[in-house]
Design a protein that fits this description.
With 256 residues, the protein is an alpha/beta fold. It has helices at residues 18-29, 41-52, 68-82, 105-133, 154-174, 192-208, 218-229, 247-250, and strands at residues 9-13, 33-38, 58-62, 87-90, 136-141, 179-186, 240-243.
Amino acid sequence: MNKKLENKVAVITGGARGIGRDIALTLAAEGASLVIVDIVQDNLDKIKTELQATGCKVLTQKVDVTQKSDINRMVAETVAKFGQIDILINNAAYIHYAKFLDYPEDEWDKVMGVSLKGYFLCGQAVAREMVNKKNGSIINIASIAGEIGVPLGSAYCTSKGGVISLTKLMATELAQHNIRVNAIAPGVVATENVRQVVGDDGMKLREKMIPLGRLGQPEDIARAALFLASDDSGFITGDVMRVDGGVMAAAIVVRD
């Protein structure tokens, strides 16, 4: 049986842990060669070992996605090793929560730098390579927070709203090159990072607001990413796929 991503090369930013890690493992299982981008070398070393154990061809790159020079180096080394880039998943993010009236300017800049500027810089650099092949799929990990006002999330909501708009712009301009660009907007996903931010009580409260009655799991996002990366979604571009258990459809639900 043919694998969906055989002979494809995928770059995943923030790919060493959390949602990015699950996306990496899912794409690897479907035959993709992977370039894992992250800022923490220890995490890169761990995911490289994990992926190599599956037989996946993998390159790890320590990259600050706010720095154009880092990104250009990563793209050049990817092309030198694999000869192409077929898929980009912009997933790297930074979160800081604080009240709007007290939100620190330096934290605003850091969130916007990683979670929006980084998507622009990576998308631009990789798309230039994809243009040469007249083919590619770019997937931006957004959030339902980009469509609503989540308390304490001034910069996060703004950055994810920007990601959604950027996705539509990229899809429109890059369509002539046969490059598809879509976004995934997760709801609450049960990662350790989210639990550290909102606490156990916060996770329980959020679970009660989900019509399907459970928190999202990283593999839920990974399966959506696989669909958008593969030819199964060949006529889909400019879309924002909500993977939220029905939260946005229902507006608000509190389950007993």
